[in-house]
Amino acid sequence: MAKRYELRFSGAGGQGLITAGIILAEAASIVESKYAAQSQSYGPEARGGASKSEVIISDSPIDYPKATIVDACLAMTQEAADKYANGIKDGGLLLIDDDFVKRVPEGNFKVLKMPITRTAKEEIGREIVANVVALGAMIALTDVVKRESGEKAVLAKVPEAFLDLNKKAYNLGYDKIKTLMN
Amino acid sequence: MAKKVALLQGNEACALGALYAGCDFFGGYPITPSTEVAEVLSNELPKNGGKFIQMEDEIGAMASVIGASLTGAKALTATSGPGVSLKQELIGYACIAETPCVIINVMRGGPSTGMPTGPGQSDVMQAMWGTHGDHAAIALTPASCQEIFEETVRAFNLAEKYRMPVQVLYDEIVGHMRERIEFPEPGDLEVVDREAPSVSPEEYKPYDSTKGQIPPLAAFGSGYKFHVTGLNKAADGFPTTKAELVDAEERRQIAKVMDNIADIESYEEYLIDDADVVIWAFGSTSRSARYAVNELRKEGIKAGLFRPITLWPFPAKRTAELAEQCKGIVVAEMNLGQMVYEVERVAQGKCVVVHEGRVDGEPINPGQIMNKVKEVI
Questions:
Q1: Structural contact between residues A75 and A114, judged by C-beta atoms closer than 8 angstroms
Q2: Which runs of E-coded beta strand occur in A98-179?
Q3: Which chain B residues are closer than 8 Å to A25 by Cβ?
Q4: For residue B130, how many other CB atoms are within 10 A of its CB?
Q5: pLDDT per residue over B130-140, tens digit each?
Q6: Closest chain B residue to the Cα of A63, Cα to Cα
Q7: CA-closest candidate to residue A102, choices A83, A78, A119
Q8: Among residues A74, A102, B36, B73, which one has the fewest Cβ atoms lying within 10 Å of its Cβ?
């Protein structure tokens, strides 16, 4: 049976989590030639409100393109955690931005805490790259694609003037999680 | 050489498929969840010598598409259910005036404004019967980003070949999801161009069917002059109320599709040969169904999938055969019962036909379908 891995990125609309999902899907399906399907759901608001992006990665063609039992979930805000940090499988993974998620969802999964937005703001100097920090963190957490594949996909996506900024953000997220896990 | 690949949204794939088919006119009015089709074409058409126009409303957009097509353009519009409702008058006009064009309907819920950002499959009967009067319809329902590209090309081919509007219906889920696409090279997919008249402008009659079911359509601006109307008309394009002419024309316009079902029909089957229960599903729901089939097979339940790609004309012959060979058919669709009535009609009681629907803005998930199949067994 094909190996199917399901990830969900959730947060507030405008935080770039759909973009993070797209980059991961590109890392998997363009850089690594696996199968990937990225989808999202969102409300009518352009910004704010809870938004989620789901990425299914598999070594064979993907039928159902939405999550069934989530292997790994990211929640950047309390609203997102309340609304979308569910359906995580037993022994699965949940990464939260613990500056914003104070009521931690309960379940039979491992919870990792990292001040993602603050890390972007204080260590990179730009809050806007919090999604790329989060992407690096999720890839480190799951090993669903190789570190270099994720970096390559990030750099292919961003404008030239912001290559260094995003490279730094991606690797910072990646390294912080690897340290946390050790 | 390896084919060019990209991770694309279904709507982006649709726009690029249209360009591959030779689309050189888009007239539309933006609406979620179809807007990306217009967005991509607004960038790409001008670069390729085509025209993009955002009209004042949906019916104006449909009128612009018909007008462009009559000048020889391969013309497209993209919208969602509320927009298709507004276009109906002119979709009928395109039917009777036999004007090739392609209408993309990225389906959300309804009726009326419904839930703009949620998926739906409740416009499937509208695709057949939305406009009044007897007419044939062709509607295609792709289920993946790659297939959206290919079926958009095929929609143009069928529109040009059969001289009629063709609708491509896909739900918000496939419209907005992203998957890897392998771009076909020129020549990989068939591209059909409109047949030009073989007679001089003086001899030309736009609806002269003496040489075949589908009269060639001349392009305005190429020296041919003819009359176009929504009234029943004679071979020269001018209105008529002569009973035998009206009758023959109405019947020809339906026969040109129904006599060519083999050419228009397209479907996919999965594990159908020994299936006790057939799941009959299209678009994103067929992907849930395929997942369900695999899970059910693991439990020892012989389930199979029938996935129409051409939804209209209805795949009556094959569905009737399946009704003969299986115990039950589960029709899964994101509505409260539409295609299920067609399936029941052709099954003629030879097997159990049940419906699994959903209209809350969430997709029909595999578990839901599995439970329904177990009810039938």
A1: no
A2: 110-113
A3: 7, 178
A4: 18
A5: 999 999 999 99
A6: B287
A7: A78
A8: A102
pLDDT, one tens digit per residue, over B211-237 is: 999 999 999 999 999 999 999 999 999
Centre a 10 Å sphere on the Cβ of residue B365 and count the other Cβ atoms it contains. 17
Residues of each domain in chain B carrying CATH 3.40.50.920? 268-376
Question: Nearest C-alpha of chain B: how many angstroms from A118?
Answer: 30
pLDDT recorded at residue B15: 98
Considering only alpha carbons, which residue of chain B is nearest residue A37?
A: B179
Q: Evaluate if residue B150 carries a pLDDT over 80.
A: yes
Closest chain A CA to residue B176: A39
Contacts of A68 in chain B (CB under 8 A): 291, 365-367
Q: Is a pLDDT exceeding 50 seen at residue A1?
A: no
Q: Mapping DSSP to helix (H, G, I), strand (E, B) and coil, where does residue B104 land?
A: strand
Q: How many domains does chain A have?
A: 1
- Residue A14: which CATH number? 3.40.920.10
Could you read off the pLDDT of A138-159 as tens digits, one per residue? 999 999 999 999 999 999 999 9
Fold assignment, B5-182: Rossmann fold (3.40.50)
CATH placement of domain B268-376: 3.40.50.920
Compute the average pLDDT of residues B138-147: 98
- The residue segments making up the domain with residue A77 are 4-181
DSSP class per residue in B172-213: HHHHH-EEEEEPPPTTTS----PPPPSS-TTT--TT--TT-S
Rounded CA separation B135/B118 (Å)? 31
